[in-house]
Design a protein that fits this description.
Nucleoside Triphosphate Pyrophosphohydrolase, 7-stranded mixed β-sheet, 2 domains, 4 helices, about 25% helix
């Protein structure tokens, strides 16, 4: 059996930020050679699929500085220190959309980009929503919008929705609504 694990020889934190840290590590490869690995340590994040009913989800539009575009996204956020992913989605759903959910179901967790970060992102289904008023962070400029899952799928394939967590969440929602076995597996009753 082939060995794949790389062992850390040394690790240097070259940048410490509010959101993430950047590291440069020297690693020992299975072949015995050494290599350098640059990566970002991230605290993790969570995304919520807020199901309104009748095949509709809640999305947010916002400007994302790194890509210099206005994006359409599912509500999401970074996991704060001492917080778990369910608390993150509960908080972010209210902050970004003004909706509270009576029911959350964790569907899966995934790595958005294994090539340069250790970030893990957990995906939650939310239903039984009630509007209580938005509470955006002071530096957030967000527009809340509802869209059918079928329109969101079309916008993904048209190249209008490019955010990976949103693409994954929408495709999960599309599959989930059409698959009784998946609904039973996760205990989702619509």
């Amino acid at each position: 059996m082939k060995e794949f694990v790389e062992k850390t020889k040394s690790s240097r934190n070259i940048f410490k930020g509010k959101l993430l840290d950047v590291y440069v590590d020297e690693v020992l490869l299975p072949s015995g050679r050494t290599a350098v690995r640059e990566y970002i340590k991230h605290p993790g994040a969570a995304v919520v699929i807020p199901y309104v009913g009748d095949g509709e989800l809640i999305f947010v539009r916002q400007y994302r500085y790194p890509v210099r575009e206005v994006t359409v996204e599912l509500p999401a956020g970074k996991i704060d220190t001492g917080e778990d992913s369910i608390a993150t989605v509960e908080r972010e759903l209210i902050e970004e959309t003004g909706y509270r959910a009576n029911r959350f179901v964790e569907l899966l967790c995934f790595y958005p980009s294994v090539g340069y970060t250790n970030e893990i992102l957990c995906v939650y289904w939310a239903q039984e929503l009630s509007y209580i008023g938005e509470r955006p962070d002071p530096d957030e400029n967000i527009e809340v919008m509802k869209m059918s899952i079928s329109e969101a799928v079309e916008r993904i394939f048209a190249g209008d929705i490019k955010d990976s967590k949103t693409i994954i969440g929408v495709l999960i929602a599309d599959r989930l609504l059409g698959d009784e076995n998946l609904k039973r597996r996760f205990g989702i009753k619509l």
